[in-house]
Structures are given as structure tokens and as C-alpha cells.
Amino acid sequence: MKIISTRSLNSTIYQDSLKIRQKVFVQEQHVPNDLEIDEHENDCCYYVLYNEKLPLATARTYVTSDGGWHIQRVAVLQPYRQQGYARQVLKYIEQQALKQQIPYLVLGAQDQAQGFYLKLGFKVNGPQYLDAGIKHHEMIKSLPK
Q1: What pairing do the DSSP bridges indicate for beta strands 104-110 and 2-6?
Q2: 36: helix, coil or strand?
Q3: Looking at domain 2-142, what is its CATH homologous superfamily?
Q4: DSSP, res 7
Q5: Does the pLDDT of residue 145 top 80, yes or no?
Q6: For the chain, what is the total number of helices (H) and then of strands (E)?
Q7: What is the pTM (predicted TM-score) of this model?
């Protein structure tokens, strides 16, 4: 397994990330494509976990106004779920954030995935909200300095 990141929308890594997102969010969860591809697309760092050359999982981050990292679009292709791939991507992102002394990670967790993020040390931060018709909660994880 290898995780590769990019900021280039012209890279194959970004294209692989986008394919995973399209399958998971647009096809499976019926998120409209115009919500899936959003105003942050150009400002993100994209992460893809590969098994050999096969892309299996992805996530993206962008820098918040106060210097944290907002994690979004965490997705694993259906046949490869429950094998720890999303955890590997999030741990990798956390390691990169620690190296850059990022103060915290924040994300909007679908409620059905909240337990997963709790196990990774995230805490619920605020009331439930709807995003693309799906129930979410903001979750945050403070990082040591």
C-alpha cells in the first residue's frame, strides 16, 4: 500500500481521487455532481491510497482560515471497505499535519461514520446539519504542538 498526494488537478492522482469520489458519493449516495465538485477543488491537497497501481481510497484537505486542515471527501471503493484503508489515509494526513505543526484537523462526518472518526480521536463539535441531504456533524481533533 502506498499513499500519494497532489495539489495538481492535472495529475493522475487527482483523476484517481475523482473517480473514487464519483463512484462513492455521486453513484452510491446520489450526491449531485455540482455539489461533489465544489469551490474548494482548486485549493485542496488530494490523497489516494494505492494497492500496486489500483486506487482504493481517497481524501482531500484544505487549509482553514485559522490554519487548521479541513478533511473532506473521505471515500473507499465499495469492495475494499472495512479493511482499514480510510484509517490509513487519515493517519497519513495526520502525520503530514503534525510535521507542518497544524493545530487541528476538522471534518464534516456523515452520522453513519461518526463512530469511525471517534476511534481516531475526533470529537463531535456542534449540532447535526444536512449536507447534500445527508446527516452530518462537525468533528475536530486537536493536534499536539
Answers
A1: unpaired
A2: helix
A3: Gcn5-related N-acetyltransferase (GNAT) (3.40.630.30)
A4: -
A5: no
A6: 4, 8
A7: 0.93
Question: How far apart, in whole angstroms, are the C-alpha atoms of residue 101 and residue 47?
Answer: 19
Q: How confident is the model at residue 131 (pLDDT cuts 50, 70, 90)?
A: confident
**132: pLDDT confidence band, cut at 50, 70 and 90?**
confident
Q: Which grid cell is 6?
A: 497532489
- Residue 14: burial class (beta carbons within 10 Å; 0-12, 13-18, 19+): buried
Q: What is the pLDDT of residue 5?
A: 97
Query: Which residues have a Cβ under 8 Å from the Cβ of 24 and sit 6 or more positions away?
Result: 75, 76, 77, 78
For residue range 82-126, list pLDDT tens digits in order.
999 999 999 999 999 999 999 999 999 999 999 999 999 999 998
Q: What angle do CA 53, 56, 58 make, to 5 degrees?
A: 115
